[in-house]
Amino acid sequence: MAKSAPALNVENISVAYDGPDVIRDINISVKSGEVFGLMGLNGAGKTTLIKAILGLRTQSAGSIEIFGDHALKKAAKEQLAYLPERFEPPWFLTGMEFLKFSLDLYRQPFDKEFIIERARSVALDPDVLNKRVQTYSKGMRQKLGLLGTALTNCSLLILDEPMSGLDPLAR
Q1: What's this model's pTM, rounded to 2 decimal places?
Q2: Res 1: pLDDT
Q3: Helix (H, G, I), strand (E, B) or coil at 152
Q4: DSSP readout, 51-94?
Q5: Residue 75's Cα: distance from chain center in Å?
Q6: β-strands 156-159, 69-70 pairing
């Protein structure tokens, strides 16, 4: 990881879906510690760009780096956590089981008291963490996703429509 490298550097990215480019010549540089948001009309290509950054969509041109490493390299991916627009945690797990699973994936320690404190910070009742996710409302699932993403301790968080379904207090 290059210390002076941006957290995310997108240069001249173009992506096509069976035809002309959907996004063309996109350039973005996000510094470490900076918050950056994509805004635009439906169909403008925001999610397509995110998919390209994550390596889920092949770009027809350009390059993407995360902290100076090519975005598809393991070193880059280890620094990245992603919350999709339609977050659906495994319905058969409890919220706490989902968070433990997520923390295990990112080799982060499981500290139940810290998780309870962080749940309160996103206005998620800690008592629901002991219930199966299938009983959660959309907003509760979204809060669980935000919590799980933040707890990874990754240096770069990519959140697609993170406020979707959240109540005013959580926002």
Answers
A1: 0.87
A2: 47
A3: coil
A4: HHHHTSS--SEEEEEETTEETTSHHHHTTEEEE-TT----TTSB
A5: 17
A6: unpaired
Neighbours of 23 (CB within 10 A): 19
CA–CA separation, 142 vs 170, rounded Å?
Answer: 10
Do the Cβ atoms of 16 and 60 come closer than 8 Å? yes
Euclidean distance between CA atoms 158 and 153, whole angstroms? 13
Q: Collapsing DSSP states into helix, strand and coil, what is residue 8?
A: strand
Confidence label for 171 from pLDDT (cuts 50, 70 and 90): confident
Query: First vs last Cα of the chain: how many Å apart?
Result: 33
Q: How far is CA 139 from the centre of its chain?
A: 16
Concatenating the DSSP letter of every residue in 99-129 gives: HHHHHHHTT----HHHHHHHHHHTT--GGGG
Residue-wise pLDDT tens digits, 146-168: 999 999 999 999 999 888 888 77
Helix or strand holding residue 47 (H, E):
helix 46-54
Three-class SS state of 142: helix
Instruction: Tell me the pLDDT of the chain averaged across its residues.
Output: 92
- Which residue from 112, 85, 88 is spatially nearest to 99, judged by alpha carbons? 112
